[in-house]
Design a protein that fits this description.
There is one protein chain. This protein is of the alpha/beta class and 469 residues long. It has four domains: 117 residues, 3-Layer(aba) Sandwich (Cobalt-precorrin-4 Transmethylase, domain 1), CATH 3.40.1010.10; 71 residues, Methyltransferase, Cobalt-precorrin-4 Transmethylase, Domain 2 (2-Layer Sandwich); 103 residues, Rossmann fold, CATH 3.40.50.10090; 123 residues, Rossmann fold, CATH 3.40.50. The protein has 15 helices and 21 strands. The protein has a five-stranded parallel β-sheet, sandwiched between helices. A five-stranded parallel β-sheet has the order 13-12-19-20-21, with helices on both faces. Strands 14-18-17-15-16 form a five-stranded mixed β-sheet. α9 runs parallel beside α10, α11 packs parallel to α12 and α13 runs parallel beside α14. The longest helix has 13 residues. The model has no long low-confidence stretch (mean pLDDT 90).
Length: 469
């Protein structure tokens, strides 16, 4: 996979969030000399970094060599970032590179960057437009591919907020341009509702009318409007909007994978967690055969509480460690703990059933208002289990909720309840749930189209989402 990433005009603070997201996960970075030092510093230390800079009269690599290297590394299964100053499609030869990638049969994503044409004047206090002085801006390169001054009439023109006046715009442009000049109209650009219509200047107004194009939309007039270098059309989730309801800070990795698959992703944390300070006061952690953890939050909460009270994990002695699923197990491993048991089905009920079959005395670290199935399961099996609540889950009042979405991802029953406390609509959306308990809560709250991820892992969630497309 190849990403054409715009690095912005130099200041690393102007690199987009998406640009940073793919850059820090790159295996190979092929960069130009106009990329700022701060952005270059974000290249992972274990990544292959290739200087492909072009200087006046001296090229480190030819354009064909750059394109060949991108394709070769992508075919090796590596994540390749082509890092370009400004925006890759504004005089950055990104269009040529996209054509080369498509011809080679590889996949790519264009990650727009902040163009120096707008940013550099802004940093000098010069606005590109101003209602009192000018209503548009033309951007030119000072030399063409033959190193000559370009023909300024042979340009692309981009019009914002123009579809409501398409007929008037068409009439004015036809005074100086030919009717067969290529045009494109893009409605709701970059969202799951994006629609692109290609026409000519002579057919512009009719195209807008016949396709019921409404704002926001962008009109492109010029030869580039006939090109179709779309990288989104072949992505499996193109045209899909997905909501992630995970707590803040917990959904970024999943969101990145969904965007890479073409989805428009909206993160709407429906719950927040609060550590219950002093919840370990007076609790003796020794003498248990098993210590059980039902969430990543529980793991982090325990180590925070131990540090606050001057204690550490050695108090558990020889207790074996169990985790509800792979993510929780990984959180424990990061703290140096080997996990002895993870149930085949990643939910609290099966965790409790598994521990009950092992027997022995169990200490469970969990949320104050978590599911009661765990407690009931231990009672059913006659297991001596102590449950200590070390954090609390609270619902978040959602303010900005989209009117429509295709898929909503729920990672716990509490995320379902939190969502439904704020949102009365969207029950017709597909609900992708982790575990049977979460799915049951979704059905109870009115969702009829429910898909259960096979495991409580990002890869399984992604597969479940893909199955809905």
């Amino acid at each position: 996979m190849i990403w054409l990433v715009g690095a912005g005009p130099g200041d690393s603070g102007l690199l987009t969030l998406r640009g940073r997201e793919v850059l820090i996960n790159a295996d190979v970075v092929i960069y130009d000399h106009l990329v700022g030092e701060g952005v270059l510093a974000m290249i992972p230390p274990n990544a292959e970094a290739v200087d492909a800079g072009k200087y006046s009269g001296s090229h480190t690599m030819s354009q064909r060599e750059i394109e060949a290297l991108m394709v070769a590394r992508s075919r090796e299964g590596k994540r390749v970032v082509r890092l370009k100053g400004g925006d890759p499609f504004v005089f950055g030869r990104g269009g040529e590179e996209a054509e080369a990638i498509i011809s080679a049969g590889e996949n790519f994503e264009a990650v727009p960057g902040v163009s120096s044409a707008i940013a550099v004047p802004a940093y000098s206090g010069i606005p590109a437009t101003h209602r009192d002085y000018c209503s548009g801006v033309n951007i030119f390169t000072a030399h063409d591919k033959n190193n000559l001054l370009p023909d300024f009439t042979d340009t692309s023109s981009i019009f914002l907020m123009g579809v409501s006046h398409a007929a008037e715009l068409q009439a004015k442009l036809l005074l100086t341009m030919k009717p067969d000049t290529p045009c494109a109209v893009v409605q709701d650009g970059t969202t799951s509702h994006q629609r692109t219509f290609r026409t000519t200047l002579g057919g512009l107004a009719e195209c807008v009318r016949a396709n019921h194009v409404t704002p926001p939309a962008v009109i492109v007039v010029g030869k580039t409007a006939r090109l179709n270098l779309s990288w989104r059309d072949n992505l499996p989730l193109n045209g899909k909007r997905v909501i992630i309801t995970r707590p803040a800070g917990r959904g970024e990795s999943l969101a990145s994978r969904l965007r890479a698959a073409g989805a428009e992703v909206i993160t709407l944390p429906t719950i927040t967690t609060t550590i219950l300070h002093r919840s370990l006061d007076g609790l003796n952690l020794a003498g248990y055969d098993w210590a059980g953890f039902t969430s990543v939050t529980g793991v982090e909460a325990l180590f925070t509480l131990l540090a606050e009270s001057g204690r550490d994990i050695r108090e558990l002695g020889n207790a074996r460690i169990s985790a509800i699923g792979p993510a929780t197990a990984e959180a424990l491993r990061r703290h140096g703990l080997r996990v002895d048991y993870v149930p085949e089905i990643f939910d609290g009920l099966h965790l409790a059933e598994g521990l009950a079959k092992f027997g022995g005395k169990v200490l469970m670290f969990r949320a104050l208002n978590g599911t009661q199935d765990i407690e009931q399961t231990f009672r059913n099996y006659g297991i001596d289990a102590e449950q200590v609540c070390i954090y609390r889950t609270d619902y978040v009042k959602l303010v900005h909720v989209p009117e429509f979405t295709d898929i909503i991802i729920f990672t716990s029953a509490s995320t379902v309840r939190g969502f439904c406390q704020s949102v009365d609509a969207l029950r017709e959306s597909k609900a992708v749930c982790i575990g049977v308990q979460t799915a049951r809560e979704a059905v109870r709250q009115g969702f009829s189209d429910v898909v259960i991820a096979e495991q409580a892992a990002e890869s399984a969630i992604l597969e479940a989402v893909l199955s809905c497309s």
